[in-house]
Amino acid sequence: MLFVDDGVYLNRIHIDAGQKIFQAIDGQRDELGEFLPWIGQIHSPEDVIKSISAAGSSHPPVWLFELLDTRCFAGIISMKITNRQIQSAEFGYWLLKEFRAKGLMKKSLQTLARFAFTQCNVTELTIRTSPENAPSQKVAQAAGFTRFTDADIDIKSSGDYIYRLVKADWELIK
């Protein structure tokens, strides 16, 4: 468990969280589905459990963390190693609407960045957002990430906006 702030934690997700995650998704399906296309593939707690299992057994594995605010499920952050040679990773995240605009995701991304840089030997982190997802872009920037274009870094964006934080820059702002 990673401490984020008073009463806020990131906890590695286990398959026993499938029911509560499904209920959260199902309760905000339309809103979450706007920027998360995989939401349409989640129809039951079993689908969530399969996704959690698949993430953990992929190569390289995807680490899934549940964001807990005073022990209530608030959202998810994923960390996927994207290039082992340069030790880069990509974050993905979503937050239930009742927990937005409180700084929880910004602080959680900063906590997970610290974990990635200091415990996982990651040297570069990226976040992809849809060009239409202004709130996610603001969170990435607030957490210390900078927007780059395809010409700036060797990552194909598929039309997404790419935000990046390198360890050397993080060390200056931590």
Explain briefly what this protein structure is.
With 174 residues, the chain is α+β, with helices and mostly antiparallel strands.
Give a structural overview.
The structure is a single chain. 34% of the residues lie in helices and 30% in strands. The model has no long low-confidence stretch (mean pLDDT 92). It has an eight-stranded mixed beta sheet, sandwiched between helices. It contains six helices and eight strands. The two termini are 20 Å apart. The longest helix is centred in the middle third of the chain and has 16 residues, at 104-119.
Could you list some keywords that capture this structure?
single chain, about 170 residues, alpha+beta, Aminopeptidase, eight-stranded mixed β-sheet, globular
Helix/strand structural class: alpha+beta
- Separate helix tally: 6
CATH-level-2 architecture:
3-Layer(aba) Sandwich
Content of β-strand: 25-35%
Helix/strand layout:
Elements: E1 2-5, E2 8-12, H1 18-27, H2 29-33, H3 45-57, E3 62-69, E4 72-83, E5 88-95, H4 104-119, E6 124-129, H5 134-142, E7 146-148, E8 161-166, H6 167-173
Parallel strand pairs: 5-6
Antiparallel strand pairs: 1-2, 2-3, 3-4, 4-5, 6-8, 7-8
